[in-house]
Design a protein that fits this description.
Length: 131
């Protein structure tokens, strides 16, 4: 059955006090253990090594991110330069086409002028003969 019904309050209280006293004594013995300090130093060394590895991984990750960002920036700059070069080439092609069209127009105008001059000269020559 339930043990608390068999024992009195004073017995339970003294048992609790004895348990507390035993736990405190175990704690005192554990804290005075010379191997405890060694274990704590070993744990601290493990923690320090772990923190160092984490910091190294973080630094490596940040360096990789910076490298990738630099590559992206370089690619973007190259792409932008290519677009600008293409735009300049396109503008130069349009300018060349415009100059070619002007040259054709001038040549055509010169041909028309020469034809008019030839007709005028022929009329003038015909008038002189007919006189």
């Amino acid at each position: 059955m339930n043990r608390s019904k068999e024992t009195g309050f004073a017995e339970r209280q003294s048992a609790a006090a004895a348990a507390k006293k035993a736990a405190l004594e175990r704690h005192r013995v554990a804290t005075n253990d010379p191997q405890l300090a060694e274990r704590q130093v070993a744990r601290q060394a493990v923690k320090l090594a772990r923190d160092t590895r984490v910091a190294e991984r973080r630094a490596a990750r940040l360096a990789e991110e910076a490298r990738l960002a630099a590559e992206r920036a370089a690619e973007e700059a190259a792409r932008q330069a290519a677009l600008e070069a293409a735009a300049r080439a396109e503008e130069a092609a349009r300018e060349a086409e415009r100059a070619e069209k002007e040259a054709r127009d001038l040549a055509l105008e010169a041909e028309k002028q020469a034809a008019r001059d030839a007709r005028y000269a022929a009329r003038k020559a015909a008038k002189r003969k007919g006189r």
